[in-house]
Design brief:
Length: about 240
């Protein structure tokens, strides 16, 4: 029996367990299993990582993508550059941290841009935001990060005026605002400044169309949710675990 799993605080919305269970069935891996590890604090995270003898691989989600890094034996160079880990490989008793959000976001973004380089806003400054920022820098796209604190971002939410939104043709929500079950929540933007030349991306996949995306569509913007990114990063995690 090979056991994989997802580490996080609240996992009732998780897509990963269903995706990997289906993956195991498709591959004929009847002795593989994917579990959910809901951990309420860092002490529980430390305890889990202290004994991984029964595990073959882990995914990491909110709020542990950065917290987990100093607890691992090794960090892949890309994950170190991003500053967040969302996949852990277990090899010869050692834990190695990777970031597959980069591959997931890159694979979703580039077909949408078709070679253009619009000015961007990244909403939120957590672990997923760091992967988004990595890809934007890689592609030479100018961007600003919006956060509650200037220490973690370029702009605070109160500085997000219509002019800033109007000139930022690519807006990416990396916050959990709008995620099930709080589906009516959304980032506090001047949505009237959004128009048909905007592209709004939400890393949330449940619901499929968040309030953020619905409001963007109401003003003519193109939109994309987090489903594609999630599937691409899961495929990358599977590749890492089997490499």
């Amino acid at each position: 029996m090979k056991i994989f799993g997802l580490i996080g605080r609240s996992l009732g919305h998780s897509f990963s367990q269903r995706w990997f269970t289906d993956k195991f069935k498709q591959e004929g891996l009847e002795f593989h299993r994917y579990d959910l590890f809901e951990l309420s604090d860092v002490e529980e995270l430390i305890a889990l990582l202290r004994d991984t003898s029964g595990l073959s691989g882990l995914n990491v989600t909110i709020p542990y993508k950065r917290t987990v890094m100093p607890l691992l034996d090794e960090i892949d160079p890309m994950a170190a550059a991003v500053g967040a880990v969302n996949t852990i490989a277990l090899r010869d008793g050692r834990t190695i941290g990777y970031n597959t959000d980069v591959a997931g976001f890159r694979g979703t973004l580039l077909p949408m841009l078709q070679g253009s380089k619009p000015r961007a806003l990244v909403l939120g400054s957590g672990g997923a935001s760091r992967a988004v920022a990595f890809v934007l820098r890689e592609q030479g796209i100018k961007f600003r990060v919006v956060s509650r604190s200037r220490e973690r971002g370029d702009l605070t939410w109160d500085l997000l005026d219509p002019t800033v939104v109007k000139v930022s043709k690519l807006i990416i929500n990396t916050t959990p605002l709008g995620m099930h079950p709080e589906v009516d929540a959304c980032p506090d933007l001047p949505y009237d400044a959004i128009g048909p030349d905007h592209l709004l991306m939400d890393l949330i996949y449940n619901p499929g169309k968040t309030s953020f995306l619905r409001q963007g569509e109401a003003h003519g913007a193109s939109t994309v949710n987090g489903q594609s990114m999630l599937e691409l990063q899961a495929e990358e995690a599977w590749r890492i675990w089997n490499s």
